[in-house]
Design a protein that fits this description.
Elements lengths: L2 H19 L4 H15 L8 H13 L4 H17 L7
Length: 89
C-alpha cells in the first residue's frame, strides 16, 4: 500500500470513529449510507424519500454491523470530498 492509500485509509478510520461516537441509531446509519450510495451511483432519484427508504431497507436487511456502516459512510464522505462533492445529513 502506498502513502496516499494509507493516508486515505487513516482519514476514513478517523471519520468512522467520529461517526460511531455520535451514537446514531442503526436506522439512521442505514438512511445516511443509502443517501450516499444513491448519490455516488448517480441515481437521479437520490433525493426522493421513497427511493432512499428502499435503499435504506436493503442496507438494514443486509444486517451489516454498526461499525461497518460507520466505516462505509466515512468512506463515501472522504472520497466524495476528494471529488469536491458534499453531503448534508
Amino acid at each position: 500500500m502506498n502513502d496516499i492509500e494509507n493516508t486515505i485509509r487513516n482519514q476514513i478510520n478517523f471519520a468512522a470513529y467520529y461517526i460511531s461516537q455520535k451514537n446514531y441509531t442503526y436506522d439512521k446509519l442505514c438512511w445516511m449510507l443509502a443517501k450516499r450510495q444513491l448519490i455516488a451511483h448517480r441515481d437521479p432519484r437520490y433525493n426522493q424519500e421513497n427511493r432512499i427508504k428502499e435503499k435504506a431497507a436493503e442496507i438494514y436487511f443486509s444486517s451489516a454491523p454498526y461499525d461497518v456502516l460507520c466505516w462505509l459512510i466515512a468512506e463515501h464522505d472522504i472520497l466524495m470530498n476528494m471529488k469536491g462533492k458534499s453531503i448534508a445529513d
